[in-house]
Amino acid sequence: MTYSDHRQTPLHSGFGAATTASEALAGRDLSGVQAIVTGGYSGLGLETVRVLAGAGATVLVPARDPHQAQAALNGMAGVEIATLDLLDPQAIDSFAAAFLATGRALHVLVNGAGIMATPLLRDVRGYEAQFATNHLGHFQLTARLWPALRQAQGARVVCVSSLGHRQAGVDLDDAHFVRQPYDKWRAYAQSKSANALFAVELDRRAAAHGVRAFSLHPGAILTPLVRHLDLDDMRRVGALDEQGQVNPPPQSGFKNVAQGAATAVWCATSAQLDGMGGVYCEDCDIATLVADDSTGPGVRRWASDPVQARQLWVLSEQMTGVRFDCDAE
Description:
13% strand; 37% helix; 12 helices; alpha/beta; two-stranded parallel ribbon; eight-stranded mixed sheet; single chain
């Protein structure tokens, strides 16, 4: 039995696809908990923030557009907003430094912001934007926030992956499409596989310091994440009805936002996961490890393999120039 096989064993949690984020919280009191939720002012992130803050947590929401975030979060008690652009390494460092300067411990970090199936975009380093935003930005952010995570003496890092990971693993030799033609869906898929692999290796290195990491597929949900999709793309993901309108039919399996945020909240707060980590979850449970050619649910081996996770970690340190202090070989 391998590392991945052993950990990807469902708990039979009692929850499921229809569970809402509030239900996944299971009445837990989060008073005294400090959380950071990237992407917390839109879609699933907004619902995640609402539920965490509603249970008593103090939630800091990083935002590339603070004015937009303020409009979305207006009147929500216990929520703070700060400026952050995950494509800007200096902005990540500034955000983290400002948080560390407060002296607060960080109990929950939800790495939820992301972009999907965009045209080819590159950051100032020449890095492909989906990989840079969805993975490298969160890798650097988590590294910079490491002292606050360790200070919590029992923190969780939650990496929002996707069923999109099923389409491709990480191309460690050409992650930025320098030598191969750009494919927006393959780029998205590898960024989501990277999210899952990051959780695997982070948990291995950080568990001894009281920090556990999880990744998850929230479910298929129509949120602002689909802003770059055309009708052909929407048809591909099953979001069109018989009339060709964006209206997912009941059999499509799409969730509403409250259901879509449930697994992130469960990973961030559930006592069922105490003492565990490095696993990929879906529908508020640990997902099953499945063959790479499987067409059903579950996590593919290329997104849970500990060897690839370590290789990606090394590559990510090289690409960002950032090293964690939690290295444990």
